[in-house]
Amino acid sequence: MTIKVSSWNEFDPLKHVIVGRADHTCIPPSEPATEAKVPDDSDMRGMWGPRPLETVEKANAQLDALAALLESRGVLVDRPTPIQWNQAVHTPDFSAGSMFGCMPPRDVLLTVGNEILSAPMSFRCRYFEYLAYQPLMQHYFDADPDFRWEQAPRPRLSEDSYKPGYFDEITTDERLKRTANLDFVTTEYEPLFDAADIMRLGKDLFCQHGLTTNRRGMQWLQRHFPDHRVHSVNFPGDPYPIHIDATFVPLRPGLIINNPNRPLPDDQRQIFNSNDWEIVDAATPVHNSPPPLCYSSVWLSMNCLVLDHKTVIVEASEKNQMEQMDKLGMEVLPLPFRDAYPFGGGLHCATADVRREGSCEDYFPKQVGNTRL
Question: Residue 176 pLDDT > 90, yes or no?
């Protein structure tokens, strides 16, 4: 089968995708970036090491079911090659007791047009995560003469990249104040971003400025993609602003669901309002707590995978979100996925685009507001 890498947005018809695997996933030891992500009341505080085999098997069963559903809809599915994540990481600048895993390729791989870019992530435990996707990148490179295989500058992740003692004895109210003031654990020492902090909408890339993506990372993206417009957005109601896809999710041209607990500020909404985009509050999650040993919030309910402008995969227990999608004119494909959540996130997190139909559209011809870098 001919391989063609091409994806410009989050909603045009999906034709080729990478679905992650849970094999050998570890709870990483404490480091500056993980301390920023793990909530104070999480059952993961103080834990690290390989995840229990039973939970790995359950997660893989649901990831396999996702792959099978996609294939039944005519989507070509590739899978990463897990390595033994329970190995220490050593560089000239830092050491980490273990790595993480390869369930969420969306965090690592950013597809823009015919390019797949490996992100310079701020987690030391994820420094070598790109290796799980190396065989696929080599295959695409050999099969598609137009494919651009890129790597953002590898960060050093030394102590200079983090603010010392950022989360020492800090309250939730103080966290909210800091995030509202754009005061995050990462410094501007070097470009840092996770691919999952970037929402692709044709000529415009909207980047969440938060705990895993700094302004220097966004500036690097603007220089790397000079024909695109890079925007900085933030969501002050989130004490743990990591990854945009459980906060601000486009369903089709002109329609986005927004986490009502983390609304986009009014001044940043101007570009959407002026271009006739509707921003709708996402439905309330069914669950009031995440699964055991899970980093993520209950708002993974809105972390859905859009297959085309009228079709979306939603976690099967999230009745409220499915009902809302139905009212918004979407065909809903329910899929159990909560066993996979602790391994890196929801349905969108667990995938990375290789190809969607469509071209690079200009959805925002009216450039207003203050989101541009």
Answer: no
pLDDT of residue 164: 85
The domain that holds 33 is classified in CATH as: 3.75.10.10
| Total domains in the fold of the chain | 1
Residue 372 lies in a domain: no
* DSSP-derived pairing of the beta strands 198-201 and 204-208: antiparallel
Residue 125 is a catalytic residue: no
Residue of 243, 308, 339, 353 with catalytic role:
243
Residue 287 annotated to the active site: no
Can you give the residue range of the structural domain that contains 120?
A: 14-356
SS3 257: strand
In a domain, 363, yes or no: no
Q: Higher pLDDT residue, 294 or 45?
A: 294
Of the candidates 144, 194, 308, 339, the residue annotated as catalytic is 194
pLDDT digits (tens, 9 = 90+) for 324-368: 999 999 999 999 999 999 999 999 999 999 999 999 999 999 999
Instruction: Name the active-site residue from 102, 207, 294, 349.
Output: 349
Annotated catalytic, 194? yes
d(CA 242, CA 240): 6
Range with lowest mean pLDDT among 111-115, 174-178, 187-191, 271-275? 174-178
HEC-encoded secondary structure of 90-143: ECCCCEECCCCCECCHHHHEEEEECEEEECCCCCHHHCCHHHHHHHHHHHHHHH
The residue written with tokens 């065909």 in the block is 331
Helix (H) or strand (E) holding 224: helix 215-224
